[in-house]
Amino acid sequence: MRPDDLSGQVMDWWGPPDGNSGEVWGKGMAMTNDSSTLDLSASRVALVLNGSAGRQDAHAREGHIRERLAPSVSDFATYAVREGRDIAGAARRAAEDGADIVVALGGDGTQAAVAGALIGSKSAMGVLPGGTFNYFSRELGVGATLDEALDTILHGQVRSIHIGDVNGRIFLNNACIGVYPAILTRREAIYRRWGRSRIAAYWSVLLTLRDLRAPMHLALTRDGVTTHVHTPLAFAARSAFQLESLGLDGVEAVQNGQLALFLARGHKPLELIEAAFRLALGKVSRGREFDLIVADEIVIETRQARRMLAIDGERELVPSPFRLHVRRDALKVIVPAPAAGEDGVQPDAA
Fold this sequence. Notes:
Blueprint: E1 44-50, H1 55-69, E2 75-81, H2 87-96, E3 101-106, H3 108-118, E4 124-129, H4 135-140, H5 146-155, E5 157-166, E6 169-171, E7 174-178, H6 179-194, H7 198-210, E8 216-222, E9 225-231, E10 233-237, H8 240-246, H9 251-255, E11 259-264, H10 269-280, E12 290-295, E13 297-302, E14 306-311, E15 314-319, E16 322-335
Parallel strand pairs: 1-2, 1-3, 3-4
Antiparallel strand pairs: 5-6, 5-16, 7-10, 7-14, 8-9, 8-13, 10-11, 11-12, 13-16, 14-15
Helix pairs in contact: 2-3, 6-7, 7-10
């Protein structure tokens, strides 16, 4: 099935779209010479949708999004997938098929997968929140609900934003090694039993920290200088909104396009549980629970040849060393248009 045949249909609902590399939708962004202005009526829009939450629910969401967007765009197509691991491939195919805008519905892991697939393409990204915390959509200010975010796509503008990179993998909010990937493993088990909620997420943190054994030994290199530290958690941040909501320092550094690397000070389970409670309440004491390192580029080497890395809530086994840096203006994304009288300049996102 070609993209041109998709009017009123859903592309290959329970599998990655076939696509057709010989049939493309256009020659790039439907934008004027002003890079912030988007001609939505001339844009071809692709929706990347993860149907794993259930066929009926996925159909309902796709139908609502199509109803809101399709009348205002040149063409609308849905790239639906069965598994989260197929999201990046679907987004990449949508961009290769010529989509001017690739819209992602989901949480931060979904948004990161789509964003990574669009790097280097001419497609802009539309963000629809659909997860538990939705830090990326909140960072961009696109709206807390699906309809608010759809309004942003319909009436917003395109901006280029900075994103984080670790060993060629992009991250929008954070990249972590240490105890956090173990927390994600515990959290998924709790979600499967009790359902997704913030309480379940916090409970997974406490259970994992309770079982903590030994901290990591890390060699950190920045500006050519290497230091050795022991810590149970190294947390590299690119979301100013997330840092503000957690009561952490580093907001200004992130807004200025740098990395903020946090190293947990506590080594014992009770120390980390106390820090977790203070973090959840947004009452972290400056310099007490975490050490902060600000840099343009940081290299982290572990004693293990490979270590589990958590990138925007998704786990992956990655070889050491971990090279972290910021890709500047690497992703085009739709954000709210400035109100009348504003200059349109917004804080850096992601």
